[in-house]
Amino acid sequence: MNYAQYIREIGRGAQGSRDLSADDARQLYLAMLDGGVPDLELGAIILGLRVKGESLAEMLGFLAATEERVQAMHPPPGRVRPIVLPTYNGARKEANLTPLLAIMLQRFGVPVLVHGLIEGYGRVTTGQIFRELGVMPSVSTMSAQARLEEQGLAFVPLSALSPGAHNLLLLRARLGVRNSAHSLVKMLDPFRGEGVLVTAATHPEFLDLMRDMLLTLGRRGILLRCSEGEPFANPKRRPRLEFIHDACADVLFEAEHDSLRALPHLPEAADAPSTAAWIRRVLDHELPVPKPIANQLACCLFASGYADDLHRAKAIVAVEGNGHAAAAA
Question: Can you give the pLDDT at residue 321?
């Protein structure tokens, strides 16, 4: 493969560069995932895309390549779609509550697949909190499939799900900048569109790109502004929660902007043991579910098909999810 032709297209800066077609992007990313691109050219491609920014067509091509290198998983039997939670940032200042959302969905009987990183690099990852809660990582997609069908919840590290994408993520430490894989992994649904992807980003342009990808692919997803880079709703102030489905984008909950009347009861520290201890108290009904997360839980129940409409989902969460939780808008 002649990598210079791709570098000429994407490497001429923000003004002079041109986007790759979806097919060219797919072919290029397959080589990147397989480790076939020499280091010099790989660095040039990553930096060229970083300066130019990825187009919709390029990201669709990159995603198609990544999915080709992932063993497909199948939704467990039943009418309820599995929820997919990509978890790649971890917490630094505030507690990472992705495990709470996952376990609550599991308790409702909604299958939940979580994929992400185990390594924290100074942050507290979902995998670390799961370990405190007794949820161990699966060693392969086959193991995750079995655990999902038997227990309703599986956590598979990216290194097992997509070793090539994992290697591309690790290049951040060497190059000092993010690359396309950091956004791409948040769009990865091993069920090939049969799941409901809960995906989040900080910057509005990435939210727009994620929305366009889901709409173009005709997939289901819950889209929100992330908390600490993670896909759970900010427990202090709810972000906008969008449901992407059937080529439509419906806002299920608008973002909250009013001043807080009272602070929710949250973990006193962001470390894994403190967060896990707080999650246990919420699951044991000793503490209330923060309202924004109750709202997000209702969205997931609706999007997965567990509830026929959002109003019913909100009522179910209010009554069954936690005696203290209020899912009403």
Answer: 63
